[in-house]
Design brief:
alpha+beta, Beta-Lactamase, Helix Hairpins, 3 domains, five-stranded antiparallel beta sheet, 13 helices, 10 strands
Amino acid sequence: MLDSKNLSDSSKEVQKKSNLLKKMQGAGKSFSSSMKKGTNGLKGTKIAIPSKSVGIKLLVIIFVSIVTCVLTVGLIAYSQSKKLIEENVSEASYQTVKQVAQNLDTVFGNYKDISLQILIDTDLQGKLGVLAKSEDDYETLKATRDVSARLSNFIIGNSSITGIALIPLKDDGHILTGGGATSTATALLKDAKWFEQLAKSNGSELWLEDQPEGLLVPNSDPSIGLARIVRTNGTLDDFYILVMEISLESITKRYADVNMGEGSTLSIVNSEGKNVAAQEITGIGQPHIVKLPTEGDAVKTGRLNLKTTTGALVLTAYQSFELTGWKFVATIPVDKLVEDTKLIRNLTWIMVVLSGIIAIAISMLVIKTIANPLVMLRNLMVKGAGGNLTVRSSIRNRADEIGQLSDSFNDMMTQITALAKQTTRSAEEVLLTAADLTDSSKKTAIAAQEIAVATEEIANGATSLAVEAEKGSDLTNQMDVQMKDVITANGQMAKSAIEVDHASKQGTAYMQQLIQKTGMTEEMTRAMVEKVDALKDSTGSIVKILDVLNNLTKQTNILSLNATIEAARAGAAGKGFMVVADEIRKLADQSRQSIDIVGQITAKIQVEIQETVGVLSEAYPIFQEQISSVKEANQIFLIVQGQMEQFVESLELTTRAIGELDKSQSVISDAMTNVSAVAEQSSATSEEVASLSSEQLNISDGLVQLSSKLDAVSRGLKDSLSKFQINE
């Protein structure tokens, strides 16, 4: 006999499995909802942002790099050539100025030598002595003419000397002149400042600049002069100031052939910065166009870049004369010097324009060969992440990193597509198995209902048997009076026993069918567990492949990092490749994110499969317990059938004993007592069978609900996989 407590525990287990299936169904809905959200999120992905495009960045970097390099080289060449020209011209000008100054020093030295010759001329000294001592007018006149003639001889020997004069220091002395010098013009020199200074000096020569009122020759061209003291007998009456007037033109002719270039100037400047000689007559006596240093090492000689009074920058080379203290100054406009270098500057700008065009062409080539394939791969990955597993890269026959990335992308999409197909087929098989399990569960429920009906009939027959047994006991007490009633009751008891026996046989047949169907259900459950295990192994393969892809993404990221380091070592030449390496690293990050998404999806599928395996594993012992319960019920029906056969035999004995009723009344009474006990036992057994049938019906209903939930979970898994587009 079966224990009703065990059946109650089985019912509780079925209820637990039902709750577990509800959780699985909720997880499936959550997975489907997350997949839809992920797909909707991918729909909003921007395919391209022009300001962040790799192609635009490469175009800007290459254009700026090439143009900057060309412009830098051109400007450096322009600056260096300008500097080199300035230095060379400055050196050449400085050497020229030094040579001219040396030559002019020689010229000034010649004039100084002439003045010394006049000082030591004995004839001249003698005539001056006569003038100083003689009181005879004739001798004085003769001596004056002789001195003038002697001075004129010196002038005849040097045409650059326009006049010579001897001016006495005493007021009543005779002024002696030679050449074009006049006594009137010479007399005016006594009022000049330099005359008084020279008279108080120790006898050194004094170089005179061009005077506005002239020196010795009236209305003459610009000139300079040399003045010094001439002594005869050592008394004040014998002191004369020798003044020699020299044509300034004869001086400027000495450097007239010197050409410093267009816009250059050559001048002789005194210590006050005024022009002693200039290219324009109007400039004589005026301040020089540049202000020369007045202190330091650069006072006497040097070469400097100075600004003129008008603000123009000029190269200035100057050298001081040893005798006069003046400076010979040459100025050259810097703009004129570097005018030829403007050709380099103009050529630089032309090269900048050409390099810009070349940079654009190179950039377009780089965009075509690198940026466009990267954008295409990025778009394909976005579509793949959105669920379209049919996309493939069309990049072929490239041995570089982009070609390898394209091949890896195609391999990855092919493997993911194969795994998705396999998962879809497994889900369909699970769905079919769930449908078969649902049909078997429904058939089991129908059979349980039929068993319940048969059990109810058996219980009714047992009840009737108990009533008849009580009637038989009453009739036994009244056997003499109511024998016919006993025979009738005996016939009814026999008929009821036959019906009970028939019902027992029918229940036994139903139980056999239930055992067979329950066995089929067990086999289906076992097959479904094996298929789900196979699906679990497939998801494990997916995880391994995703690990391989993740490692590939890490290696790509490491490769991009190494490329970035090498590009940084390459300096400016590697900046373009650095950007490419950075974009490859970003692409590897996007691949890793896509792989993580697929890994999460696969993990969720694996969890659901594990939960399905757990549910089936827990349901399998229930099916085994159900088979055991059905077998026990069958044994009960067999026992009932045996007891009913015994009951029939008892009725036959009762019939035979009726004839011997008088002799065996006590025996009949005992037999009726036994019949009553058997009837009670049959009634109790029938009630027990009815309770078992009710429990079996509840278990069958739970199995039907469990199969329906398994079907819903399978459909949810199939719907989750349907987002992927797969070419069959």
